[in-house]
Specification:
292 residues, 6-stranded antiparallel beta sheet, alpha+beta
């Protein structure tokens, strides 16, 4: 790949002595979420997204795990996340890491892939979580800078977005993994997943799930984790957090959202919310109000 030099000024360096995070939505691009953060001690628990994630490291190093293995991502290099891909991590050895990432919707990637290849269907898939491509990184930085500036024209943001995604898809997308035929355990896991998504407010017991699908608890745990990448309790927490994000974006008070999504209280919600999202519920509400 051709490369371009990343000048330090283009990375907008931030002090790594203090944690800070800002998350906001960009109305002109269908409310896509963008996160700009410096983390030192913050660690993200195992989680997934129902959209893609594309980020660039600006300072420090990101220590990142996914099904693609363990990665240490330095400044000027990128992380790419597929929908449903389990991942977790934080700053390397607590030394601090500054990065920016945005989460484009699946529909956006599908349309971009069709622009690259008119015969393509479905979604692109990226087998590499860690991408080193300085030209693409420059495109991404230009896009993320525009998304942070509320004076940026919609046409400008859309142009930067499509050129960035076209580059990413053209150079790094590969065919999506073939869908395996569902067996009895796969159907059981799907049933449990649907149940957790419908009954997320409840204090669900393991035996309750086992009885629901006719599996012994240990077999159920193994089958669920093998297929979903998360144990049932972690999946349930993620469902609750995703529902909380929706309610918070609608303007519901944080304390009410905590109760409506199955958390014991507001502090319980806040503790888990930050481990999944990277900001507190209050910061998330503020970001939803500050549309660019």
């Amino acid at each position: 790949m051709p490369s371009a030099t990343l000048h330090p000024a283009s990375l907008h360096p931030t002090s790594l002595h203090k944690e800070q995070a800002k998350l906001w939505r960009v109305q002109k691009l269908n409310n896509v979420e963008v996160l700009k953060a410096t983390y030192i001690n913050q660690t993200f628990t195992r989680h997934t997204h129902d959209c893609f994630g594309l980020g660039v490291i600006e300072q420090g190093q990101l220590h990142y795990w996914a099904d693609t293995g363990e990665h240490v991502i330095p400044p000027g290099e990128m992380v790419v996340i597929n929908p449903g891909q389990v991942h977790w991590g934080g700053a390397l050895n607590g030394t601090g890491c500054t990065y920016r990432i945005f989460y484009p919707h699946c529909e956006t990637l599908s349309k971009a892939m069709q622009l690259v290849d008119e015969t393509a269907t479905g979604l692109p898939h990226f087998s590499e979580s860690h991408v080193c491509d300085r030209t693409l990184a420059q495109r991404l930085i230009k896009l993320l800078t525009a998304l942070e500036d509320d004076t940026s024209l919609k046409l400008q943001c859309e142009s930067y977005l499509i050129t960035t995604l076209a580059h990413l898809i053209s150079c790094y997308a590969d065919p999506a993994p073939a869908m395996a035929k569902l067996g009895s355990e796969d159907r059981a896991v799907r049933h449990i997943r649907d149940y957790l998504e419908s009954c997320y407010r409840e204090n669900i017991a393991l035996q309750q799930l086992a009885d629901l699908v006719g599996l012994k608890p240990l077999r159920l745990l193994r089958a669920f984790r093998k297929q979903m990448g998360l144990p049932p309790h972690a999946y349930l927490l993620q469902v609750r957090i995703n529902r909380a994000k929706t309610l918070l974006a609608q303007g519901r008070p944080i304390i009410e959202v905590a109760g409506d999504t199955g958390f014991a209280d507001q502090s319980h919600l806040t503790r888990h919310f930050k481990r999944f999202v990277g900001v507190t519920p209050g910061q998330y509400v503020l970001g939803c109000c500050q549309l660019t």
